[in-house]
UniProtKB/TrEMBL annotation, chain A:
The chain crosses the membrane at residues 12-32, 39-57, 96-115, 121-138, 145-164, 194-216, 228-252, 272-290. Pfam families: BPD_transp_2. The keyword RNA-binding does not apply. The gene is livH. This is High-affinity branched-chain amino acid transport system permease protein LivH. Belongs to the binding-protein-dependent transport system permease family. LivHM subfamily. It comes from Moorella mulderi DSM 14980. GO terms for biological process: D-alanine transmembrane transport; L-alanine transport; L-isoleucine import across plasma membrane.
From TrEMBL, chain B:
Keywords: Signal. Belongs to the leucine-binding protein family. Residues 1-22 form the signal peptide. This is Leucine-binding protein domain-containing protein. Residues 41-388 form the Leucine-binding protein domain. It comes from the Bacteria. Gene3D superfamilies: 3.40.50.2300. CDD domains: PBP1_ABC_LivK_ligand_binding-like (cd06347). It holds the Pfam family Peripla_BP_6. InterPro entries: BCAA_transport, Leu-bd, Peripla_BP_I. PROSITE patterns: PROKAR_LIPOPROTEIN. It comes from Moorella mulderi DSM 14980.
């Protein structure tokens, strides 16, 4: 039982990070039906912005979080304007391929500029102490960092819910997602709304990137690939295009993955996760929270 | 459409720029010095990975070799005043380049012996040329057992030698240290399933540890580059292991140590020479996490042996950085070659080969070295203990 609960704690931390990344995928898909494969690499850029901020500009980690969010948001908007916007009326395949291209560009550009070296955030950036937890008398170990990751994720989700439901930008996003043409007729600036969506998603990715870097104590130009793909799976599990779906999918995948490697084998973790993706796409393509007729024609 | 064209052009321009910049990075170092053997110089081929993924291995080795030959030449050379002329070629870490560099060194530069490459794959490739032209080749650091012995015929490769111990040796010594010195009875092993080095060490360690009376209570595998080891470590913790063997490279090791300590696992951890990196403490989340960890290595920088300390000082003075195990082994290799030429009394490749094969108690900086019938050295394995982020020599075990 202790091992099971310990694995749940491990899974929750990983799931929080997946959920944060999945939000970006799902928001962009919700608004322009594009699977933005460069999303995982924006995460990497975010992690590096914070790294350079902390190491060279001696910034406080929280300030680095904010600067990295702003930097990544700008990058996200830039990518959208340069690579996706010109293809908006070109069908679905062209932007998808472009997204893969942007992803490869960021990965290889990253390798070229940053080198292949693995780096770590300076030790002691966030004091990660061990917390002796006890649930029903069972002793468990969690670190303050794990709790912090969970707390930041929940806070970000509340902020996102607020933005989407109670601000003009959020209302515009929902309107464009529902019907871009009608939204345009109502005087909504569709292009700007899409940019806002990319900015938000990228800022979330930056947070996820820094948390990943802190949690695993390493950052690398290719660090975004696997978490990006996993978060994509999480978004599909929850129902792509649905914000609550990304959250549920992220946590579910994090715990599922931890259980597979904890009770079975680490070798089988990735194959089983992607098998799950195939199964979901075959059985319930709209995801756990999706209705079966969400496709708008 | 006009805009798409513009963007396409822009992208193409960008890609071109990237290609040009990337191209500039891979300059071929080529031969640093040219010159024919005979007269009063002896040409030695230095065939190393000076660019590519493992460029640091090659660069450190090459620098140590150049330093060693410089010292030997200053002290009067060999065979009554003949000077060494090392000729350096870059193989970029590629097997085919290593092979063609070896061929070029032998046929064009008429070298009497080849030193390098650093890695096992490149060494095996270069060794085919050495065997073909009957010129001895010594790798300072190729640890794969197949380098000197053909795995199919079980016959020794006549012209191939090495100065480092082979992988199974460090696993055997590691298991001995775990049982005798750390008193471990229940070991857990976490190894990379995508890496031959790691898998090989895992198999031998497990065998030896059980032979010594221990029990392996958990075996976990991962793929090199994985990030999350917490599920596997949680299982190891639950299995009640009193030692964790981690035969992997420092990038993965750092993450494993960090996550294990976070999960409250305090038992000793033991590894192999893949741990040796100044980056280890950083990846492990601080020097404190590394306390109570040990690894088997080729030498210890803190070894008080005065010749080793002199080498470290000379290397630092010449190159302004700390030498590593590759450098120390390459330095030994150069002196071993000079010693063999002295004992042979001639710079003829065949005579050098025979002298190398009969090396006994050569006094190297990493250890005393005796070459056995498989052309592997019998030498000391250093056990390093990490104490507050510093490598300290715990003990030496001869094998």
């Amino acid at each position: 039982m202790a091992v099971f609960l310990q694995q749940i704690i491990n899974g929750l931390s990983l799931g929080s990070i997946y959920a944060l990344i999945a939000l970006g995928y799902t928001m962009v898909y919700g608004i322009i039906q594009l699977i933005n494969f460069a999303h995982g690499d924006i995460l990497m850029v975010g992690a590096y912005i914070a790294f350079f901020g902390v190491v060279y500009l001696k910034l406080n980690i929280w300030l680095a979080f904010i600067i990295s969010m702003i930097g990544s948001a700008i990058l996200g908007v830039l990518i959208e304007r340069v690579a996706y916007k010109p293809l908006r009326n070109a069908g679905r395949l062209a932007p998808l391929i472009t997204a893969i291209g942007v992803s490869l560009f960021l990965e290889n550009g990253g390798l070229m500029v940053l080198g292949t070296e693995i780096r770590s955030y300076p030790a002691g950036l966030i004091t990660s102490a061990q917390l002796p937890l006890a649930i029903f008398g069972i002793k468990l170990t969690a670190t303050t960092l794990q709790l912090l990751i969970l707390a930041i994720t929940i806070a970000m989700m509340i902020i996102l819910q607020y933005i989407v439901h109670y601000t003009w930008a959020g209302k515009a996003m929902r309107a464009v997602s529902y019907d871009p043409d009608a939204a345009r007729l109502m005087g909504i600036n569709v292009d700007n709304t899409i940019s806002v969506t990319f900015a938000l998603g990228s800022a979330f990715a930056a947070v996820a990137g820094i948390l990943l870097g802190l949690y695993y104590n390493t950052i690398h130009p290719l660090m975004g690939i696997m978490p990006g793909l996993k978060a994509f799976v999480a978004a599909v599990i929850g129902g792509i295009g649905l914000i609550p779906g990304a959250m549920v999918g992220g946590f579910a995948l994090g715990i599922f993955e931890t259980m597979v490697s904890g009770y079975w084998s680490s070798k089988l973790r990735d194959p089983i996760v992607f098998l799950l993706l195939i199964l979901i796409l075959l059985v319930k393509p709209s995801g756990l929270l999706g209705k079966n007729n969400t496709e708008k024609v | 459409m006009e805009r798409i064209k513009k963007i396409a052009l822009f992208t193409v321009a960008l890609l071109l720029a990237a290609a040009i910049i990337a191209g500039c990075g891979q300059q071929k170092s080529g031969a640093e010095k040219q010159g024919a053997s005979g007269g009063d110089t002896i040409n030695i081929g230095v065939n190393y990975e000076l660019s590519g993924d493992v460029a640091t291995y090659g660069t450190n080795s090459k620098d140590a070799i150049l330093l060693a030959f410089e010292e030997i030449n200053q002290n009067g050379g060999v065979l009554g005043g003949k000077k060494f002329n090392p000729i350096v070629l870059d193989n970029g870490g590629k097997r085919e380049e290593a092979m063609s560099a070896a061929a070029k060194l032998i046929t064009e530069n008429k070298v009497v012996a080849l030193l390098g490459p650093a890695t096992s794959g490149a060494t095996m490739a270069a060794a085919t040329m050495a065997t073909k032209y009957k010129v001895p080749i010594i790798s300072p650091s190729a640890t794969n057992p197949d380098v000197t012995v053909d795995p199919q015929t079980k016959k020794v490769r006549d012209y191939v030698f090495r100065v480092c111990f082979i992988d199974p040796t460090q696993a055997i010594v590691g298991a001995e240290f775990a049982t005798k010195d750390l008193g471990a009875k229940k070991a857990a092993i976490i190894y990379s399933n995508s890496d031959e080095y790691s898998k090989g060490l895992y198999k031998v360690f497990k065998e030896e540890f059980v032979k010594n009376g221990g029990q392996v209570v958990a075996e976990e595998s991962f793929n090199s580059g994985d990030q999350d080891f917490r599920p596997a470590l949680t299982r190891i913790k639950d299995a009640g292991a009193d030692l964790i063997y981690v035969p992997a490279y420092y990038g993965d090791v750092g993450k494993i140590v960090n996550q294990a300590r976070e999960l409250g696992i305090k038992v000793p951890m033991l590894g192999a020479d893949g741990w040796d990196s100044p980056k280890l403490a950083e990846y492990a989340g601080g020097a404190a996490n590394l306390n109570n960890t040990y690894f088997t290595n080729h030498y210890a920088a803190s070894d008080p042996n005065p010749r080793l300390q002199d080498f470290i000082k000379a290397f630092k003075a010449k190159y302004n950085r700390e030498p590593d195990a590759f450098a120390a082994l390459a330095y030994d290799t150069s002196y071993l070659l000079a010693d063999a030429i002295k004992r042979a009394g001639s710079a003829d490749p065949e005579a050098i080969r025979n002298a190398l094969a009969s090396t006994k108690n050569f006094d190297g900086i990493t250890s005393k070295i005796t070459i056995d019938e498989n052309h592997n050295p019998v030498k000391d394995v250093a056990i390093i203990a990490m104490v507050d982020g510093k490598q300290t020599l715990k003990k030496k075990i001869t094998h």
